[in-house]
């Protein structure tokens, strides 16, 4: 499986980007603890980006069931381990796994396993240094994985682990609405989150997933440049077709 990582790196002057050089000796695993609808990797990336310094928290990667987002370079420290200037913050790569209600946690874990393997190979980090957040601060995190931590580590060593195929692989979305159909920058129906519109007969070449947003559903889609957007999944407005 091709491991696609979407860069959403904080700017150098961002208050949540410490800017300290580090040698990554560990990979620290977290789970978000956020069960809210739509609280996927993109939403957590937007959350971190929008922090104004009132809360100094950051990590390197967020993983959900269809996407991996990178927030900081591997060779810079982050504030994710709760141990001040200890090894957790200063010498480990922080990986957050999403737990949102409308996502598939098991698939997110499989994707995180592949990311961890990639980081291990890149930085020469042994399996013994894949650790839970709890190691550094005592916090009950990753809450959803601690009861099965040994099994999680075994998955990292199991090269036969493959995430489930995407039902929408090879499918495209087309607007059938005879006007301008809005699409959004995040899972939302709000005017402020509208990113643009598509005409009837136009759409998106890639469908990633179908997600629940409020009382309705949206498709998480990508345009030809790989940018992720959200658009209504109502068959009154769109249709799903084989890619062409």
From TrEMBL:
GO biological process, one term: peptidoglycan turnover
First-level EC class: hydrolase
Enzyme Commission number(s): 3.5.1.28
Keywords: Cell wall biogenesis/degradation, Competence, Hydrolase, Sporulation
Entries under SUPFAM superfamilies matching the protein: N-acetylmuramoyl-L-alanine amidase-like
Chemical reaction(s) catalysed: Hydrolyzes the link between N-acetylmuramoyl residues and L-amino acid residues in certain cell-wall glycopeptides
MF term (GO), any: N-acetylmuramoyl-L-alanine amidase activity
Pfam families hit by this protein: Amidase_2
Boundaries of every N-acetylmuramoyl-L-alanine amidase domain copy: 12-156
Transmembrane segments: none
Record has Cytoplasm as a keyword: no
Alphabetized SMART domains for the sequence: Ami_2
Family: Belongs to the N-acetylmuramoyl-L-alanine amidase 2 family.
PANTHER family: N-ACETYLMURAMOYL-L-ALANINE AMIDASE AMID, N-ACETYLMURAMOYL-L-ALANINE AMIDASE XLYA
Protein name: N-acetylmuramoyl-L-alanine amidase
């Amino acid at each position: 499986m091709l491991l696609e990582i979407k860069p959403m790196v904080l700017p150098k002057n961002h208050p949540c980007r410490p800017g300290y050089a580090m040698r990554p000796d560990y990979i620290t695993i977290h789970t978000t603890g956020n069960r809210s609808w739509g609280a996927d990797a993109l939403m957590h990336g937007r959350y971190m980006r929008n922090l104004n310094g009132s809360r100094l928290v950051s990590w390197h990667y967020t993983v959900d069931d269809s996407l991996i987002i990178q927030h900081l370079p591997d060779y810079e420290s982050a504030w994710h381990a709760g141990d001040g200037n200890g090894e957790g913050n200063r010498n480990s790569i922080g990986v957050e796994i999403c737990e949102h209600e409308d996502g598939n946690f098991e698939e997110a874990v499989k994707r995180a396993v592949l990311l961890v393997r990639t980081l291990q190979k890149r930085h020469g980090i042994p399996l013994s240094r894949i650790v839970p957040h709890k190691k550094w601060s005592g916090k009950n995190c990753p809450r959803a994985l601690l009861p099965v931590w040994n099994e999680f580590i075994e998955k990292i060593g199991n090269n036969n682990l493959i995430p489930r195929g995407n039902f929408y692989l090879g499918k495209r979305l087309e607007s059938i609405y005879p006007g301008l159909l809005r699409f959004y920058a995040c899972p939302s129906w709000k005017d402020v989150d509208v990113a643009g519109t598509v005409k009837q007969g136009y759409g998106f070449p890639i469908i990633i997933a179908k997600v629940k947003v409020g009382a309705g559903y949206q498709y998480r889609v990508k345009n030809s440049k790989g940018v992720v957007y959200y658009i209504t999944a109502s068959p009154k407005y769109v249709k799903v077709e084989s890619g062409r």
